[in-house]
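User: Could you walk me through two proteins back to back? I'd like the raw sequence and the C-alpha coordinates for each, with a short line separating them so I can tell where one ends and the next begins.

Assistant: Of course. Protein one, sequence then structure:
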Amino acid sequence: MTLLALLDYTAVLVFALTGALVASRAQLDIVGFAFLASLTGLGGGTLRDLLLDRTPIWITDPAYLAITCGAAVLVFFTAHLLESRYQAIVWLDAAALAVAVPAGAGIALSLGQPAPIILVMGITTGCAGGLMRDVVANEVPLVLKQGELYVTCALAGSAALAIAHAAGLTPSIAALTCALATLALRAGSIAFGWRLPVYKPRPPKV
Protein backbone atom coordinates (compact mmCIF):
# COMPACT_ATOMS: atom_id res chain seq x y z
CA MET A 1 0.00 0.00 0.00
CA THR A 2 1.35 3.42 -0.96
CA LEU A 3 1.71 6.28 1.51
CA LEU A 4 -1.02 8.29 -0.24
CA ALA A 5 -3.44 5.35 -0.11
CA LEU A 6 -2.73 4.84 3.60
CA LEU A 7 -3.37 8.53 4.28
CA ASP A 8 -6.62 8.39 2.33
CA TYR A 9 -7.85 5.29 4.20
CA THR A 10 -6.99 6.83 7.55
CA ALA A 11 -8.64 10.16 6.74
CA VAL A 12 -11.81 8.43 5.53
CA LEU A 13 -12.02 6.35 8.71
CA VAL A 14 -11.51 9.21 11.15
CA PHE A 15 -13.80 11.62 9.31
CA ALA A 16 -16.44 8.87 9.13
CA LEU A 17 -16.28 8.51 12.92
CA THR A 18 -17.00 12.23 13.28
CA GLY A 19 -19.94 11.95 10.89
CA ALA A 20 -21.39 9.08 12.88
CA LEU A 21 -20.93 11.02 16.13
CA VAL A 22 -22.86 13.94 14.64
CA ALA A 23 -25.59 11.44 13.69
CA SER A 24 -25.68 10.27 17.31
CA ARG A 25 -26.17 13.84 18.53
CA ALA A 26 -29.06 14.16 16.08
CA GLN A 27 -30.49 10.79 17.27
CA LEU A 28 -30.68 9.29 13.77
CA ASP A 29 -31.24 5.64 12.89
CA ILE A 30 -28.51 3.32 11.62
CA VAL A 31 -29.12 4.34 7.99
CA GLY A 32 -28.69 7.99 8.99
CA PHE A 33 -25.45 7.05 10.74
CA ALA A 34 -24.14 5.31 7.61
CA PHE A 35 -25.17 8.24 5.40
CA LEU A 36 -23.49 10.91 7.51
CA ALA A 37 -20.40 8.77 8.07
CA SER A 38 -20.04 8.16 4.32
CA LEU A 39 -20.75 11.77 3.40
CA THR A 40 -18.16 13.04 5.86
CA GLY A 41 -15.55 10.40 5.16
CA LEU A 42 -15.79 10.46 1.38
CA GLY A 43 -17.05 13.96 0.57
CA GLY A 44 -13.72 15.76 0.45
CA GLY A 45 -11.91 13.01 -1.45
CA THR A 46 -14.75 12.69 -3.95
CA LEU A 47 -14.77 16.41 -4.71
CA ARG A 48 -10.98 16.38 -5.03
CA ASP A 49 -11.04 13.47 -7.46
CA LEU A 50 -13.77 15.02 -9.61
CA LEU A 51 -11.86 18.30 -9.81
CA LEU A 52 -8.69 16.42 -10.79
CA ASP A 53 -10.60 14.37 -13.38
CA ARG A 54 -10.07 11.11 -11.49
CA THR A 55 -12.58 8.37 -10.71
CA PRO A 56 -13.70 8.88 -7.08
CA ILE A 57 -11.80 6.67 -4.66
CA TRP A 58 -14.83 4.76 -3.39
CA ILE A 59 -15.82 3.72 -6.93
CA THR A 60 -12.40 2.33 -7.78
CA ASP A 61 -12.10 0.74 -4.33
CA PRO A 62 -15.43 -0.08 -2.58
CA ALA A 63 -13.48 -0.91 0.58
CA TYR A 64 -13.82 2.78 1.41
CA LEU A 65 -17.58 2.32 1.72
CA ALA A 66 -17.02 -0.65 4.01
CA ILE A 67 -14.82 1.54 6.21
CA THR A 68 -17.40 4.32 6.51
CA CYS A 69 -20.27 1.93 7.17
CA GLY A 70 -18.18 0.02 9.71
CA ALA A 71 -17.41 3.29 11.49
CA ALA A 72 -21.14 4.07 11.54
CA VAL A 73 -22.01 0.72 13.14
CA LEU A 74 -19.23 1.08 15.71
CA VAL A 75 -20.37 4.53 16.80
CA PHE A 76 -24.06 3.51 16.78
CA PHE A 77 -23.36 1.02 19.56
CA THR A 78 -20.68 2.91 21.49
CA ALA A 79 -21.42 6.66 21.26
CA HIS A 80 -23.28 6.60 24.60
CA LEU A 81 -20.01 5.73 26.35
CA LEU A 82 -18.48 9.12 25.57
CA GLU A 83 -18.74 11.83 28.20
CA SER A 84 -18.79 14.62 25.61
CA ARG A 85 -19.56 13.67 22.05
CA TYR A 86 -19.01 17.22 20.86
CA GLN A 87 -15.44 17.30 22.19
CA ALA A 88 -14.82 13.90 20.60
CA ILE A 89 -16.07 15.27 17.28
CA VAL A 90 -13.85 18.35 17.49
CA TRP A 91 -10.65 16.44 18.30
CA LEU A 92 -11.32 13.57 15.90
CA ASP A 93 -12.04 16.14 13.21
CA ALA A 94 -8.68 17.79 13.95
CA ALA A 95 -6.91 14.44 13.60
CA ALA A 96 -8.74 13.68 10.35
CA LEU A 97 -7.85 17.11 8.97
CA ALA A 98 -4.17 16.47 9.71
CA VAL A 99 -4.32 13.26 7.66
CA ALA A 100 -6.64 14.38 4.85
CA VAL A 101 -4.70 17.52 3.95
CA PRO A 102 -1.42 15.70 3.13
CA ALA A 103 -3.44 13.07 1.26
CA GLY A 104 -5.14 15.65 -0.95
CA ALA A 105 -2.10 17.85 -1.46
CA GLY A 106 0.09 14.78 -2.03
CA ILE A 107 -2.19 13.40 -4.74
CA ALA A 108 -2.20 16.73 -6.55
CA LEU A 109 1.59 16.83 -6.27
CA SER A 110 1.93 13.29 -7.61
CA LEU A 111 -0.12 14.31 -10.66
CA GLY A 112 2.30 17.14 -11.41
CA GLN A 113 -0.10 19.93 -10.51
CA PRO A 114 1.27 23.44 -9.86
CA ALA A 115 1.50 24.90 -6.36
CA PRO A 116 -1.87 26.74 -6.36
CA ILE A 117 -3.70 23.51 -7.24
CA ILE A 118 -1.79 21.61 -4.56
CA LEU A 119 -3.00 24.16 -2.00
CA VAL A 120 -6.61 23.99 -3.20
CA MET A 121 -6.68 20.19 -3.26
CA GLY A 122 -5.29 19.99 0.27
CA ILE A 123 -7.96 22.38 1.49
CA THR A 124 -10.74 20.62 -0.46
CA THR A 125 -9.84 17.16 0.81
CA GLY A 126 -9.52 18.34 4.38
CA CYS A 127 -12.53 20.64 4.63
CA ALA A 128 -15.29 19.64 2.20
CA GLY A 129 -16.47 16.47 3.97
CA GLY A 130 -16.83 18.14 7.36
CA LEU A 131 -18.60 21.10 5.76
CA MET A 132 -21.10 18.76 4.09
CA ARG A 133 -21.63 16.90 7.39
CA ASP A 134 -22.40 20.01 9.38
CA VAL A 135 -24.68 21.54 6.73
CA VAL A 136 -26.74 18.34 6.39
CA ALA A 137 -26.95 17.98 10.18
CA ASN A 138 -28.08 21.63 10.48
CA GLU A 139 -25.11 22.58 12.66
CA VAL A 140 -22.81 25.59 12.37
CA PRO A 141 -19.91 24.27 10.25
CA LEU A 142 -16.62 24.03 12.10
CA VAL A 143 -15.04 25.46 8.95
CA LEU A 144 -16.98 28.71 9.35
CA LYS A 145 -16.92 29.27 13.11
CA GLN A 146 -16.01 32.85 13.89
CA GLY A 147 -12.28 33.41 13.58
CA GLU A 148 -11.49 29.73 14.28
CA LEU A 149 -8.44 28.26 12.57
CA TYR A 150 -9.62 25.52 10.23
CA VAL A 151 -9.23 26.33 6.54
CA THR A 152 -6.13 28.26 7.60
CA CYS A 153 -4.70 25.02 9.02
CA ALA A 154 -5.34 23.19 5.75
CA LEU A 155 -3.76 26.01 3.76
CA ALA A 156 -0.69 26.12 6.00
CA GLY A 157 -0.29 22.34 5.87
CA SER A 158 -0.60 22.22 2.08
CA ALA A 159 1.93 25.04 1.77
CA ALA A 160 4.30 23.17 4.09
CA LEU A 161 4.07 20.09 1.86
CA ALA A 162 4.75 22.09 -1.29
CA ILE A 163 7.72 23.86 0.32
CA ALA A 164 9.14 20.59 1.68
CA HIS A 165 8.88 19.01 -1.76
CA ALA A 166 10.57 22.02 -3.38
CA ALA A 167 13.35 21.71 -0.80
CA GLY A 168 14.01 18.17 -1.98
CA LEU A 169 12.62 16.28 1.02
CA THR A 170 11.20 12.80 0.50
CA PRO A 171 7.42 12.40 0.01
CA SER A 172 7.12 10.79 3.46
CA ILE A 173 8.89 13.68 5.22
CA ALA A 174 6.90 16.22 3.20
CA ALA A 175 3.63 14.52 4.19
CA LEU A 176 4.71 14.38 7.85
CA THR A 177 5.62 18.08 7.78
CA CYS A 178 2.21 18.86 6.33
CA ALA A 179 0.39 16.77 8.94
CA LEU A 180 2.28 18.29 11.85
CA ALA A 181 1.75 21.87 10.66
CA THR A 182 -1.98 21.23 10.14
CA LEU A 183 -2.46 19.51 13.49
CA ALA A 184 -0.39 22.04 15.47
CA LEU A 185 -2.47 24.97 14.24
CA ARG A 186 -5.80 23.21 14.65
CA ALA A 187 -4.95 21.90 18.12
CA GLY A 188 -3.79 25.37 19.14
CA SER A 189 -7.08 26.84 17.99
CA ILE A 190 -9.06 24.27 19.99
CA ALA A 191 -6.95 24.18 23.14
CA PHE A 192 -5.66 27.75 23.38
CA GLY A 193 -8.28 29.72 21.49
CA TRP A 194 -6.02 30.82 18.62
CA ARG A 195 -8.15 32.90 16.27
CA LEU A 196 -7.89 35.04 13.18
CA PRO A 197 -9.12 38.61 13.48
CA VAL A 198 -12.71 38.95 12.27
CA TYR A 199 -14.42 41.79 10.49
CA LYS A 200 -16.13 44.29 12.78
CA PRO A 201 -18.50 46.80 11.25
CA ARG A 202 -17.78 50.46 11.89
CA PRO A 203 -20.16 53.39 11.69
CA PRO A 204 -20.00 55.11 8.30
CA LYS A 205 -17.94 58.28 8.02
CA VAL A 206 -20.06 61.40 7.84
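----
Protein two, same layout:
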Amino acid sequence: MASATKISLLIFFASSLLTQGILGELICENLPTNLCAFAIATSGKRCVLENYRNEEGSVEYTCKTSEVVVERMSGYIETDQCVKACGVDRGFVGISSDAFLAPEFTASLCSPSCYQNCPNIVDLYFNLAAGEGVFLPALCEKQKTNPHRAMLELLSNGGAVGGAAPGPVAADYVVDAPAPAPAPGYF
Protein backbone atom coordinates (compact mmCIF):
# COMPACT_ATOMS: atom_id res chain seq x y z
CA MET A 1 0.00 0.00 0.00
CA ALA A 2 2.88 2.36 0.78
CA SER A 3 4.14 1.79 -2.75
CA ALA A 4 0.79 2.88 -4.24
CA THR A 5 0.85 6.03 -2.09
CA LYS A 6 4.36 6.86 -3.26
CA ILE A 7 3.35 6.37 -6.88
CA SER A 8 0.26 8.56 -6.36
CA LEU A 9 2.37 11.29 -4.77
CA LEU A 10 4.90 11.05 -7.57
CA ILE A 11 2.15 11.35 -10.21
CA PHE A 12 0.59 14.29 -8.33
CA PHE A 13 3.98 16.05 -8.08
CA ALA A 14 4.77 15.50 -11.76
CA SER A 15 1.35 16.73 -12.89
CA SER A 16 1.60 19.82 -10.67
CA LEU A 17 4.92 20.71 -12.29
CA LEU A 18 3.39 20.22 -15.73
CA THR A 19 0.39 22.38 -14.82
CA GLN A 20 2.65 25.10 -13.42
CA GLY A 21 4.64 25.08 -16.68
CA ILE A 22 1.47 25.30 -18.74
CA LEU A 23 0.03 28.12 -16.65
CA GLY A 24 3.34 29.99 -16.37
CA GLU A 25 3.94 33.20 -18.23
CA LEU A 26 5.97 33.39 -21.40
CA ILE A 27 8.22 36.44 -20.97
CA CYS A 28 10.42 37.41 -23.90
CA GLU A 29 13.34 38.42 -21.71
CA ASN A 30 13.38 34.88 -20.23
CA LEU A 31 13.55 33.12 -23.61
CA PRO A 32 16.81 31.77 -24.98
CA THR A 33 17.89 33.70 -28.06
CA ASN A 34 17.38 30.65 -30.30
CA LEU A 35 13.62 30.72 -29.55
CA CYS A 36 13.07 34.48 -29.45
CA ALA A 37 12.25 35.48 -33.02
CA PHE A 38 8.63 34.69 -33.93
CA ALA A 39 7.60 34.15 -30.30
CA ILE A 40 4.72 35.97 -28.63
CA ALA A 41 4.71 36.76 -24.91
CA THR A 42 1.76 35.95 -22.68
CA SER A 43 1.00 39.68 -22.79
CA GLY A 44 0.36 39.30 -26.54
CA LYS A 45 3.41 41.35 -27.50
CA ARG A 46 5.89 40.01 -30.03
CA CYS A 47 9.37 39.04 -28.93
CA VAL A 48 12.26 40.50 -30.89
CA LEU A 49 15.88 39.46 -31.06
CA GLU A 50 18.26 42.37 -30.50
CA ASN A 51 22.02 42.60 -30.64
CA TYR A 52 24.43 44.70 -28.65
CA ARG A 53 28.15 44.99 -27.98
CA ASN A 54 29.34 43.66 -24.64
CA GLU A 55 32.15 45.21 -22.60
CA GLU A 56 34.76 43.31 -24.64
CA GLY A 57 33.30 44.62 -27.89
CA SER A 58 31.81 41.29 -29.00
CA VAL A 59 28.29 41.14 -30.40
CA GLU A 60 25.80 39.38 -28.16
CA TYR A 61 22.09 38.79 -28.54
CA THR A 62 19.17 39.23 -26.19
CA CYS A 63 15.44 38.69 -26.39
CA LYS A 64 13.24 41.73 -25.72
CA THR A 65 9.53 42.47 -25.66
CA SER A 66 8.47 44.75 -28.51
CA GLU A 67 5.46 47.05 -28.50
CA VAL A 68 3.83 45.08 -31.33
CA VAL A 69 0.65 43.43 -30.09
CA VAL A 70 -0.77 40.32 -31.71
CA GLU A 71 -4.49 40.29 -31.14
CA ARG A 72 -5.24 36.61 -31.76
CA MET A 73 -2.29 34.87 -30.14
CA SER A 74 -0.35 34.97 -26.89
CA GLY A 75 2.16 32.82 -25.07
CA TYR A 76 3.34 31.19 -28.28
CA ILE A 77 6.71 30.04 -29.60
CA GLU A 78 6.77 29.34 -33.33
CA THR A 79 7.44 25.76 -34.36
CA ASP A 80 10.59 24.71 -36.19
CA GLN A 81 8.37 23.34 -38.97
CA CYS A 82 6.83 26.77 -39.58
CA VAL A 83 10.19 28.54 -39.42
CA LYS A 84 11.47 26.20 -42.12
CA ALA A 85 8.29 26.21 -44.25
CA CYS A 86 8.07 30.02 -44.26
CA GLY A 87 11.73 30.57 -45.10
CA VAL A 88 12.47 32.63 -42.02
CA ASP A 89 15.33 32.41 -39.56
CA ARG A 90 15.24 32.54 -35.76
CA GLY A 91 18.49 34.50 -36.00
CA PHE A 92 16.72 37.51 -37.57
CA VAL A 93 17.51 40.70 -35.69
CA GLY A 94 14.46 42.86 -36.27
CA ILE A 95 12.04 42.10 -39.06
CA SER A 96 11.79 44.15 -42.23
CA SER A 97 9.52 44.30 -45.25
CA ASP A 98 12.69 44.11 -47.38
CA ALA A 99 12.24 40.34 -47.24
CA PHE A 100 9.47 40.67 -49.85
CA LEU A 101 12.09 41.71 -52.40
CA ALA A 102 13.58 38.20 -52.35
CA PRO A 103 11.45 36.00 -54.64
CA GLU A 104 12.49 32.88 -52.71
CA PHE A 105 11.14 34.36 -49.47
CA THR A 106 7.81 35.34 -51.00
CA ALA A 107 7.47 31.88 -52.55
CA SER A 108 8.10 30.24 -49.16
CA LEU A 109 5.75 32.59 -47.30
CA CYS A 110 2.99 32.06 -49.87
CA SER A 111 3.46 28.28 -50.04
CA PRO A 112 0.54 26.24 -48.65
CA SER A 113 2.80 24.69 -46.00
CA CYS A 114 3.45 28.17 -44.57
CA TYR A 115 0.45 30.28 -45.51
CA GLN A 116 -2.18 27.76 -44.44
CA ASN A 117 -0.41 26.36 -41.37
CA CYS A 118 1.60 29.16 -39.76
CA PRO A 119 -0.74 32.00 -38.78
CA ASN A 120 1.78 33.68 -36.48
CA ILE A 121 4.39 34.24 -39.20
CA VAL A 122 1.76 35.04 -41.82
CA ASP A 123 0.14 37.59 -39.49
CA LEU A 124 3.49 39.31 -38.95
CA TYR A 125 4.24 39.57 -42.67
CA PHE A 126 0.59 40.42 -43.49
CA ASN A 127 1.00 43.54 -41.34
CA LEU A 128 4.44 44.36 -42.75
CA ALA A 129 3.03 44.06 -46.28
CA ALA A 130 0.05 46.27 -45.38
CA GLY A 131 2.48 48.90 -44.13
CA GLU A 132 3.98 48.94 -47.62
CA GLY A 133 0.55 49.16 -49.27
CA VAL A 134 0.59 45.50 -50.30
CA PHE A 135 -2.32 43.15 -49.66
CA LEU A 136 -0.56 39.87 -48.89
CA PRO A 137 -3.33 37.54 -50.20
CA ALA A 138 -3.20 39.37 -53.56
CA LEU A 139 0.60 39.13 -53.65
CA CYS A 140 0.40 35.40 -52.91
CA GLU A 141 -2.20 34.88 -55.63
CA LYS A 142 0.08 36.59 -58.14
CA GLN A 143 3.02 34.60 -56.77
CA LYS A 144 1.18 31.35 -57.61
CA THR A 145 0.33 32.33 -61.17
CA ASN A 146 3.31 34.44 -62.20
CA PRO A 147 6.05 34.97 -59.60
CA HIS A 148 8.15 37.24 -61.80
CA ARG A 149 5.18 39.49 -62.57
CA ALA A 150 4.29 39.70 -58.87
CA MET A 151 7.78 40.89 -58.05
CA LEU A 152 7.80 43.39 -60.94
CA GLU A 153 4.47 44.84 -59.83
CA LEU A 154 5.68 45.06 -56.26
CA LEU A 155 8.76 47.01 -57.36
CA SER A 156 7.17 49.17 -60.06
CA ASN A 157 4.08 50.22 -58.09
CA GLY A 158 6.03 51.30 -55.08
CA GLY A 159 4.68 48.31 -53.22
CA ALA A 160 1.01 48.38 -54.20
CA VAL A 161 -0.13 45.00 -55.42
CA GLY A 162 -3.82 44.63 -56.22
CA GLY A 163 -6.24 45.37 -53.42
CA ALA A 164 -3.73 47.37 -51.42
CA ALA A 165 -4.71 47.67 -47.81
CA PRO A 166 -4.47 50.91 -45.93
CA GLY A 167 -1.94 50.73 -43.19
CA PRO A 168 0.70 52.60 -41.29
CA VAL A 169 4.00 53.61 -42.83
CA ALA A 170 6.43 50.71 -42.85
CA ALA A 171 8.95 50.34 -40.09
CA ASP A 172 11.00 47.40 -38.92
CA TYR A 173 7.85 46.37 -37.05
CA VAL A 174 4.40 47.58 -37.92
CA VAL A 175 2.03 47.66 -34.98
CA ASP A 176 -0.91 45.39 -35.65
CA ALA A 177 -3.31 48.06 -36.79
CA PRO A 178 -6.78 46.96 -37.80
CA ALA A 179 -5.97 45.16 -41.02
CA PRO A 180 -8.43 44.06 -43.65
CA ALA A 181 -9.69 40.54 -43.25
CA PRO A 182 -7.70 38.04 -45.30
CA ALA A 183 -9.24 36.62 -48.40
CA PRO A 184 -11.18 33.37 -48.00
CA GLY A 185 -8.92 30.34 -48.07
CA TYR A 186 -6.09 32.12 -46.29
CA PHE A 187 -5.11 31.66 -42.62
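The chain has one domain: 23-156.

Let me know if you want the two compared in more detail.
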